[in-house]
Amino acid sequence: MRIIWGFIKLYLYNLFLFMNINANDIININSETTQPTWQNTNYGLPYFDNMTKRDITATVGQSAKLHCVVRNLGDRAVSWIRKRDLHILTVGILTYTNDQRYQSLHADSSDEWTLRITSPQPRDSGIYECQVSTEPKISLAFRLTVIVSRAEILGNSEVFIKSGNDINLTCVAYDAPGPPSFIYWYKGPSVINYSQRGGISVLTERQTKTSKLVISRAMSSDSGNYTCLPSNSDPASVMVHVINGEHPAAMQHGNSSSNSIHSLYCNRNSNFLTFHLSKWLLSSPTKMFSSIPTLLLVTVSTVMCINFSMR
């Protein structure tokens, strides 16, 4: 009986030890799985969000912003460096340059650190680095291009319109970094007044950065200097002349250029013919015979010019 009881106690003791060990293992496993992930990985180190735009184009006079997003920054500092001279522009939200156009923008609890350049100039173009004070330091490069946006009125710098026809001017702001807020039209120093004269219409397409001015039934009083001024570009101007008469000499025609070239060509051939003919008559019989092909070629070319001009 004692032997049986001894086996029972030994069995219960071993069973207790086994259950105690398994309980400790379960506790250890649970404690490992509930530990924060960053304690076992490198996810706690700062890193850049590469989804941000890093090639920025800005227009002279309008603020440029470079957006740098840093995750898991912790107690590290973010600096902005100008690459060309390694000049430290900002550290945190403090500015470390005498040029107060540079400013670091950051909102509490935000991962974004923005370098703002007020009234940028073309000389400000170049590479800027967003730098984090890790060991070793990490940085992300941004390219800034500052352009001078100039509007353009399509066509010639001077426009000649026959009285009674429509004045049609189209202004485009090709290099503007975005759609302009407005595009104003001026005649001389004053904004075009729709109330003083009927038949004036302006159609502005902001997305295509285009504005079209139409003045119907042009009169002599409509002559003058016309300027278009987009909100984000330098202005462009054109001189408009309203001409009276059926065929004014100042009117531009599509074939005027080809006609003038043809006239110069014919005049040159006529001079050549006169020169070769006089030379041929004064030359010796042998030279007269050898010069006949050249004389015939110039003669035929001159006759063709005359026939074309008479059409």
Automatic annotation (TrEMBL):
The species this protein was found in: Chironomus riparius
Protein name, per record: Ig-like domain-containing protein
Ig-like domain location: 46-133, 136-239
Family matches, as InterPro entries: Ig-like_dom (IPR007110), Ig-like_dom_sf (IPR036179), Ig-like_fold (IPR013783), Ig_sub (IPR003599), Ig_sub2 (IPR003598), Ig_V-set (IPR013106), Zig-8 (IPR037448)
Gene Ontology CC: neuron projection membrane
Signal peptide: 1-23
Gene3D superfamilies recorded: Immunoglobulins
Domain of life: Eukaryota
Segments crossing the lipid bilayer: 288-308
A GO biological-process term: synapse organization
Assigned keywords, A-Z: Membrane, Signal, Transmembrane, Transmembrane helix
Keyword RNA-binding included in the entry's annotation: no
